Amino acid sequence: MVNDPVEDAHGREVDAATGTETTGHSWDGIKELNTPLPRWWLWTFYGTILFSIVYVVLYPAIPLVHSATSGVLGWNSRDALKAEVAEATQEQAQFRDQIAAATPAEVVQNADLFRFASAAGRSAFAVNCVQCHGAGATGGPGYPNLQDDDWLWGGTIDDIVQTISYGVRSGSDETRFSEMPAFGRDGILDAEQIENVSAYVLSLSGQKASSGDATAGQQVFADNCTACHGENGQGMHELGAPNLSDGIWLYGGKQSDIIAQVTGPRHGVMPAWLPRLGETTVKELAAYVYSLGGATVEQASAQ
């Protein structure tokens, strides 16, 4: 800040107190000093200019119409990426070859293979499975939660490989397939019977229905549902019949949801992934899904 500027011997306006030349700019009677930049800052600035010139000469830098200057070193990021991918693929090959040669049970019983397969399977899951099962594999209405260790078609590593490989109602010759009758739509049960059986189904998991007679529903269940869900409603993996006593619901656990499912059931479809992903990736994906249910190498060894 300048208060009483004076002129030096060369006719330049300077601050009387410091002797620093002013810029000639003035705001509300306050004049700006032309204080030189610190030398370290100037040398740093000059250094960045020199660095940029060297970089432009050595590396791709200046965009042209259809390409860019290549630089005297001939380096480019695409070739560098290809080299890194090739190196990573070579390092992974030993594990992938072992997984390809091993059975699913052998993969999860070997700590190193299980760890590698689970990591690789996580990547495959992120690309192929999150669209339905969610990024956290917790599913949603109509899409199973893979974290809760509750399995429609069985939760052993072989069961999971089978389900992933051939899907559910996918059209494959070896697909998992089951179909719940439309008890209401096809007139097998009347509305009162469906309401009663829904009350009984809720009671299996300790819940109380808002309407219907659970005692009468128990007989309806025994006559129509035990063939698939079992006498106590605990389900059957061979048929993909869910456990009705654990409070875990695929299509919702309110009484209205159960009535809707009994009346006109929904049947989900899962693709057959084996033709798309190949056997090795399916094993890796199965290992990852298997680990989501809390499985460990020790538990796998006990299968």
Secondary structure elements and pairings:
Layout: E1 6-7, E2 13-14, E3 22-27, E4 30-33, H1 39-58, H2 77-101, H3 104-109, H4 111-128, H5 130-133, H6 157-166, H7 191-204, H8 214-224, H9 226-229, H10 255-263, H11 274-277, H12 279-292, H13 297-301
Antiparallel strand pairs: 1-2, 3-4
Helix pairs in contact: 2-12, 4-12, 6-12, 7-8, 7-10
Characteristics:
Cbb3-type cytochrome c oxidase subunit, 48% helix, 13 helices, two-stranded antiparallel ribbon, transport, cell inner membrane, disordered C terminus, 303 residues, cell membrane, mainly alpha, Cytochrome Bc1 Complex, Chain D, domain 2
Describe this structure in words.
The chain has 303 residues and is mainly alpha-helical. The protein has a domain at 104-301: Cytochrome Bc1 Complex, Chain D, domain 2. The chain contains 13 helices and four strands. The protein has helices at residues 39-58, 77-101, 104-109, 111-128, 130-133, 157-166, 191-204, 214-224, 226-229, 255-263, 274-277, 279-292, 297-301; strands at 6-7, 13-14, 22-27, 30-33. It has a two-stranded antiparallel sheet. It has a two-stranded antiparallel ribbon with strand order 3-4. A hairpin with a 5-residue loop joins strand 1 and strand 2 (13-14). Helix 2 crosses helix 12 (279-292) and helix 6 crosses helix 12 (279-292). The longest helix is centred in the first third of the chain and has 25 residues, at 77-101. It is elongated and about 115 Å long. The termini are far apart. Residues 296-303 have low confidence and may be disordered. Its main location: membrane. Residues 1-28 are annotated as: Disordered. One of its GO terms (biological process) is proton transmembrane transport. GO terms for molecular function: electron transfer activity; heme binding; iron ion binding; oxidoreductase activity. Keywords: Cell inner membrane, Cell membrane, Electron transport, Heme, Hydrogen ion transport, Ion transport, Iron, Membrane, Metal-binding, Oxidoreductase, Repeat, Respiratory chain, Transmembrane, Transmembrane helix, Transport.
